[in-house]
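Query structure, 202 tokens:
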């Protein structure tokens, strides 16, 4: 089974492409969903995060307040590193478990959908990396409209992520999602056909 890693910057359209792949019948392993699952009460990562960050990150129900946790680590590299060391090991473990399940079920291809595929090193565990890209102006407009952000807030959020040009160095395939959905779909169809027919060879 071929494992395709799907990634992209914020508001680039990664989720749109992920949905298109799902509609094609390919199983999607969503790293963001897994990151929520491993922080549920009783999980190993839940306990380790509480030990590292204290009970002040819990909400009234005793669950981890993800927003509060993000705020704590956003401007503190050491705390972010600590959180990543706790969560990334568990996330990768779950991803590999799901890959094995889909492989035994006979799928030809499965997709690991991860915004931080490259930054976390998860890209080393997939066969191909598909990067969803859009030009900066389109990205800014989509982000402001989607999240109700000011221009300055959107710029700051985009700048906090790995630059697209840097991500491109890791990508086997790139989709330019700056235009309409039909254009994106045509690019995706070509890429998937290439991977399935030739094992990724152009």
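Result returned for the query:
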């Amino acid at each position: 089974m071929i494992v395709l890693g799907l990634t992209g910057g914020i508001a680039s359209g990664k989720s749109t492409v992920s949905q298109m792949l799902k509609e094609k019948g390919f199983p999607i392993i969503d790293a963001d969903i897994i990151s929520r699952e491993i922080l549920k009460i009783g999980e190993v990562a839940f306990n380790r995060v509480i030990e590292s960050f204290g009970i002040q990150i819990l909400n009234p129900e005793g669950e981890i307040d993800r927003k509060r946790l993000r705020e704590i680590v956003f401007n503190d590299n050491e705390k972010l590193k600590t959180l990543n060391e706790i969560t990334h090991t568990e996330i990768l473990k779950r991803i590999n478990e799901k890959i094995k399940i889909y492989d035994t079920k006979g799928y030809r291809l499965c997709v690991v959908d991860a915004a931080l595929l490259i930054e976390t090193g998860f890209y080393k565990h997939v066969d191909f990396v598909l990067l969803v890209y859009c030009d900066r102006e389109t990205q800014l407009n989509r982000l402001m409209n989607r999240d109700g952000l000011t221009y300055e807030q959107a710029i700051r959020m985009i700048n906090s992520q790995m630059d697209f040009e840097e991500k491109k160095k890791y990508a086997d395939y790139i989709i330019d999602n700056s235009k309409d959905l039909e254009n994106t779909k045509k690019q995706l169809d070509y890429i998937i056909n290439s991977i399935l027919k030739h094992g990724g060879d152009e």
